[in-house]
Write the structure tokens for this entry.
Amino acid sequence: GSYMLAASAEGYQKQVVYGIEAGAVDADFVLEPAPIVDGRVIDVKTGKPVARFDVGLAYESTPGTVDLGMVVFQSFSNLDGVFSFPVAHSGSYLTLLARAPGYTSNQLDLGRDMVNVSGLEIPLEPGQTQVVGSVRDPAGHGVPNAFIFLGTLPSPPSLGTPAARTDSVGEFTLENFPSQATLITAYDPDLGLGTALIEVKPNQTNQVEIILEPMAVVQGTVTYHGRPLPDAAILLQNEAGQALGGHTDENGAYEVRDVLPGKASVQASLPWGVDPTQTSRYLKQEVVVEAGQVAVLDFALPPSVSVTEEPQNQKTLVMGNVRSP
């Protein structure tokens, strides 16, 4: 069969190689040193350094689509307000974000395929930007202990870190919020999920109300030439900003849960063990899902697709080296 392999190491950029054949003995990786981003965070009014702050990088596939829930921040504390850290992934659109207590968060767009960047300055506006909101069920009752996420709902939700939880009457407050258009997601395991896209205004208290809806399920099978296709990749995206995925099981079946009602696009892709020479590797379909319902969407991949099978109970070995330039 043909495989995808990846190698990574601290201080180096991750490299992915496709189309490596089973039994290969020359599957070498050459890892490039990761670009370094450094700079300082300053008070926009005084020009003086901010001594305690967090900085994080957002890696996105398209420009201008920062999912705050996916940003991992690093904390810095020094009198000069300086920071420095490596860029882990190449080929992504990068956004640098900074936040600090008593300031409104700010961000810089760094573009794509960057090299070392030095001397950046991120100015922060003094003041506190808040988002005050409520989470309600379809009948208008407040939902206590609901999870509040910045960005889309993690999949599964238990792996995400919520930004807040609602109080006994279904209300929540988010402090030190970035002044930008931001998706806020509310989730309750029993009542469902709701989202709100809010244009946050700096140094103000911004109001938002989120209504929960019962979530839907999309399921089906993926076949090739009428035969179940295991390990096909499934990606669901919808107008609410969700991006959910998974893989088919040994029977070619898949199930995507926690889907918001509305129109969704679902894509089924060939696994890397399937005909690496095939150029048409996925099929995309649209489906309308209703609250609390199960939508069935099956995929029959193009007849030109063929599967490279391996004998049962046969182990394969791929050999190679990982080195720096």
Q: What stands out?
A: The two ends are 29 Å apart (CA to CA). The chain has a mean pLDDT of 81. The longest strand covers residues 117-126.
